[in-house]
Amino acid sequence: MTVSRSSVIALAAISLASTVSSFTPKVNLPSIQKPSIRNWSDSKLFGLIRGEAVDEVALDENEGGVGLAKRSVIKISGVSRKGQECEAQELVRYDAMKELDVASAKSTLEKAGCTILCSGMGEELYQDPGTSTRYEDKLVKFGPSEAVKSALGSSSSEISDGGANTVVFNFLGGDDLIIGEVMDACEMLVNGMELSDKTKILFNSISFTDFKEGACSVTVVASEGQRAGLKGEDASLASGELYIYDGKWYSVAEECITTVTN
Predict the structure, then answer these.
(1) Are the CB atoms for 123 and 146 separated by under 8 Å?
(2) Which of 21, 153, 166, 221 has its CA 20 to 30 A from that of 137?
(3) 173: number of CA atoms within 13 Å, CB side?
(4) Residues 6+ apart with CB under 8 A from 176
């Protein structure tokens, strides 16, 4: 059986969520650090992925837990610190993303004291070196890292937090978006921006099948967290949660959090 990358990512999301209380609305992750390379035989996924017998019915990726993961907007949130690795802390599932009216969203951001610092898009690239054994012929680029390079390169001067209390890194990609690649990209942002030691740095990583596989956007927002009296996507915007992707603006709303299990 050929297992697609998106299937593996979906299975990973299910394995992670089932480990931490079976897709509750907001799951506090047990201090997950950036994944490291390890032996697949030691992974919890090893027992989930197996070949199919010749006469076995093929796996339907739209059914069961895999289908549930593919239909869900999956967000992993956490913190990033200067000089330290990122830490994923929470997993939340939504049943939809909200496409925003840009003018209205700009007004909400302004009233909440939020500023968009930079944004960028990136796509992954795997260049087959063929029979060559030369290191320089091997080329691997990851969507989140390429998005960060684009964002940091969008300004001719160093990008700073402007004295904001909080800076939020918002990543958005298809259902093959890998949290380890996002956390690496967060470290690139921390090192590439002028951030105060007192600034709180948060990140959100959303993967959703409605968006192209292999592509990722990042939107960096400075926030003062002035969300009193706001609801839905406006409350999320006021917290600095904005995703700009191919010229369109998106966010999520708390009322769209889902606990569906099949």
Answers:
(1) yes
(2) 153
(3) 30
(4) 5, 6, 9, 207, 213, 214
87 with 28: CB under 8 angstroms?
no
The first and second tokens of residue 197, run together, are 């030691």
Please identify which residue in the block is written with the tokens 């949290």: 179
Query: What's this model's pTM, rounded to 2 decimal places?
Result: 0.76
pLDDT at position 163 is 86
Q: Are 152 and 120 in contact (CB under 8 A)?
A: yes
* CA 29 – CA 133 distance, rounded (Å): 40
Round to whole Å and give the CA distance between 113 and 223: 6
Q: Is 192 left (phi over 0), alpha (psi -120 to 50) or beta?
A: alpha
77-98 in b/e form (b: 16+ CB < 10 A) is bbebeeeeebbbbebbbbeebb
Residue ranges of the alpha helices (H) in the chain? 5-19, 64-71, 102-111, 143-152, 179-192, 232-238
| Cα–chain center distance at 87 | 13
Strand spans (E) along 70-199: 73-80, 87-94, 98-99, 115-123, 125-127, 139-141, 166-173
CB neighbours (10 Å) of residue 135? 7
Reported as a single tens digit per residue, the pLDDT across 196-227 is 988 999 999 999 999 999 999 999 999 987 77
Q: Extract the tokens encoding 162.
A: 């402007």
How much is the CA Rg of the chain, to the nearest whole Å? 19
